[in-house]
Amino acid sequence: MAKVRMYTTAICPFCVNAKRLLASKGVEAEEIRVDREPGLRQKMMAESGQQTVPQIWIGERHVGGFTDLWALDKRGELDSLLNQ
């Protein structure tokens, strides 16, 4: 199974939904809380080009946010990406 890394905050409903979707696939993502260490948000922004959370990587691929993750699942592409 591919490693999943996700930048989150505690109060983000999209982060919760992303974690739930991944958990339904049997995946526990490495969660990086940018609200605990503000410097991590700067790192996230440099890596993703985005300011919002969640920002999700599957393996080396930047997936984007929750809606991007959800769209991958709806297109039937998420499972194969997770199993690489």
Describe the protein's architecture and organization.
- It comes from Gilvimarinus xylanilyticus.
- This is Glutaredoxin.
- Pfam families: Glutaredoxin.
- Has a glutathione-disulfide oxidoreductase activity in the presence of NADPH and glutathione reductase. Reduces low molecular weight disulfides and proteins.
- Keywords: Cytoplasm, Disulfide bond, Electron transport, Redox-active center, Transport.
- The protein has 84 residues and is of the alpha+beta class.
- Helix content is 44%, strand content 20%.
- The chain contains 4 helices and 4 strands.
- The chain has helices at residues 13-24, 38-48, 66-74, 78-82, and strands at residues 4-8, 30-33, 55-58, 61-64.
- It has a 4-stranded mixed sheet, sandwiched between helices.
- Strand 3 (55-58) and strand 4 (61-64) form a beta hairpin.
- It is globular and about 35 Å long.
- The mean pLDDT is 96.
Shape by Cα distribution: globular
Kindly estimate the percentage of residues that lie in beta strands according to DSSP: 15-25%
Main β sheet profile: 4 strands, mixed
Oligomerization status of the protein chains: single chain
What ranges have pLDDT less than 50 throughout 5 or more consecutive residues? none
Mean pLDDT, all residues: 96
Radius of gyration: 12 Å
Order of helices and strands: EHEHEEHH
N-C termini distance: 6 Å
Number of contiguous helices:
4
Helix content percent band = 40-55%
Arrangement of strands in the largest sheet: 2-1-3-4
Number of separate strands = 4
- Secondary-structure-based class equals alpha+beta
